[in-house]
Amino acid sequence: MPSKLYPVLYEVAKAVNSTLVLDDVLRTIVETTGRAVGVKGCSLLLLSPDRSELWHAASWGLSPDYIGKGPIRVTDHFTSLLHGQPQFVRDITHPKAAAQYPEAARQEGIASVYSVPLMLRGDAVGILRLYSATPRRCTPHERQFLDGVADLAAVAIENARNYEALRKDYEEARHTLLEWYASRSAERQRGARPVAFAHPSEEEFARMLDFYRVRWQYEPRSFPLQWDGERIVEMFTPDFYLPDHDLYIELTTMRQRLVTQKNRKLRRLRELYPDITIRLLYRKDYHRLLAKYGYRPLGEDERAADVGRVLFSPLELAERIKEVGQQISEDYAGRSPVLVGVLKGVIVFMADLMRHISVPLEVDFMAISSLGPDAQGAVRIVKDVTRTIRGRDVLVVEDIVDTGMTLNYLLHHLQSFRPASIEVCTLLDKRARRLVPIPIKYVAFEVPDEFVVGYGLDYQEQYRHLPFIGVLRGEEAGGDVAGAGAPQPAQQGAGEPDARSALAGALPQGA
Ligand code: 5GP
Q1: In the chain, at which end, N or C, are there fewer CB atoms within 10 A of the end residue's CB?
Q2: Are 139 and 16 in contact (CB under 8 A)?
């Protein structure tokens, strides 16, 4: 192909690639092609859906009269063309050419017509036509070029069709999504409106579920229990449904008469609906039930006394950590990483995470400490890795990345052992406070700029054993917290082995 045609082919490819507006693409194709070959006109004709006619889709260099002369019927003359063979007609006005509009061609000043089929996976969808004013054959290079243009035009048409189909699917999906949103926000609104609880104990139970972020629905469903012919004569409506646990809850008071009646109804309900799990709870029972799922009643859980808000419930933590573990297992398939946990905050997360990783792995731990308040924040490694990590795939596991300084320091240190790879997995990412950019491959949760505790994370060595992640209640916590607002990591146990304090200034050179 002569080198002048290459840029044209590139231009056509670019047009196909840059827009999904089919008319624009086809117009660019006919114009650039006509100009490049140096002919009078160029057009693209597409087959009608029943393949009986060819319609002008785009043209260049032809008068509106010629384009508007009417559709071209697909006669036997088109058979080989529509089976993939280009066609050259030296003189379109000659009777032997059997043109459908010879007079229009003469008036337009057209002599030769060269047609190339637009093929899509063996099927013609249309033709590309070049019109010259004097009888003229295309050179083999030009023919090759035109084949390429025809292929690109076919791709453009296919793209536009796919796009159209996708858009329809998308519209349908969007509609479904909107419906879903609508029902969800209706649900939310219902949730936002104060629920009219039938009994104060129900409200207390709901408040407790809210605190621990256990989702609930109040009296969401009634179960028919008895019929008189078609007519339902007895129903039972459990007080709560906990979708996370697929569990119905009926709360009850101690009044024996009511309990006996409820027990009867429950027996009947279990007979009729064996797939339903329902529990009848006395007040003391629901405290026990919540404890079973890692929650304790508000006010009775000393550990949670200073917690103002639960950010991630035990269930949310478990589900997300499972996902992260599965992702790591996929990414490390065929390898055996060394998980390096950063003590102490990481212990609970690391223990749960590693049980969801299916590839063989080893574990190691590091601990760092500030040298104390006088040391101007110089950081010290008080416990280094004990495994040989040279040439190994290292996955550093952190509880929380805040400014990023701790991790930056540790990564530089670990890099000096020349591992094969080094990645980071953190339970929490407090991105808003980042000072040093750290590449973190796995983040279980992002957290707002608030001081969080629980699930391994401490405030002055407390709260590590909370089964959830929560935010301390400033006003009700001890003077330290109340005075300082959200406690800063730099304040926790400076000088103690686990302190990550005062890392500012401890960055290695060039970090
Ligand atoms: P960075 O060096 O990224 O600023 O700090 C990371 C360390 O600070 C964490 O490993 C953790 O010990 C501590 N830290 C930062 N934010 C929090 C927080 O919200 N809660 C707790 N308990 N520790 C935090």
Answers
A1: C
A2: no
Closest ligand 1 atom, residue 459 Cα: 22
Question: Does residue 402's CB lie within 6 angstroms of at least one atom of ligand 1?
Answer: yes
Between the CA of 400 and the centroid of ligand 1 the distance, in Å, is 5
Number of the ligand 1 atom closest to the C-alpha atom of 342: 10
Distance CA 162, CA 58 (A): 20
Same fold, 200-293 and 311-504: no
**Ligand 1 pocket, mutate which of 350, 398, 457 (most atoms under 8 A from CB):** 457
Alpha carbon of 511 to ligand 1 centroid (Å): 19
Q: Is 379 a pocket residue for ligand 1 (Cβ < 6 Å)?
A: no
406 C-alpha to center of ligand 1: Å?
A: 9
Task: Decide whether any atom of ligand 1 lies within 6 Å of the 429 Cβ.
Answer: no
Give me ligand 1 centre to Cα 411, in Å: 16
Give domain limits for the chain. Answer: 5-160, 200-293, 311-504
What kind of fold does domain 311-504 have according to CATH?
Rossmann fold (3.40.50)
CATH topology for the 200-293 domain: Endonuclease; Chain A (3.40.960)
50 is catalytic: no
What is the secondary structure of 103-156 as a DSSP string? HHHHHHT--EEEEEEEEETTEEEEEEEEEESS--PPPHHHHHHHHHHHHHHHHH
Q: Is 457 touching ligand 1 by the criterion CB < 6 Å?
A: yes
DSSP secondary structure letters along 199-264: SHHHHHHHHHHHHTT---EES---EEEEEETTEEEEEE--SEEEGGGTEEEEE--S-HHHHHHHHH
Distance spanning both ends of the chain, measured CA to CA:
54
Give the Å distance between the CA of 449 and the centre of ligand 1.
11
Q: Which CATH class is domain 5-160?
A: alpha beta
Residue nearest to atom 14 of ligand 1 (CA): 489
- Which one from 402, 429, 458, 498 is the annotated catalytic residue? 402
The DSSP bridge pattern shows strands 421-429 and 393-401 to be parallel
> pLDDT in tens for each of the 511 residues of the chain?
566 788 888 888 887 777 667 788 888 899 999 998 899 999 999 888 888 888 888 999 999 888 888 888 998 888 999 999 999 999 888 888 888 888 899 999 999 999 999 998 888 889 999 999 988 888 888 888 999 999 988 888 888 777 777 776 766 665 565 555 545 444 544 455 567 787 767 877 787 777 777 788 888 888 889 888 878 888 899 999 988 888 898 888 666 677 788 888 999 999 999 999 998 887 667 666 666 666 655 556 666 667 878 888 888 899 899 999 999 999 999 999 999 999 999 999 999 999 999 999 999 999 987 544 444 556 788 899 998 999 999 999 999 998 888 898 899 999 999 999 999 999 999 988 888 888 999 999 999 888 899 999 998 888 999 988 998 876 233 333 333 334 443 333 333 333 332 222 222 222 2
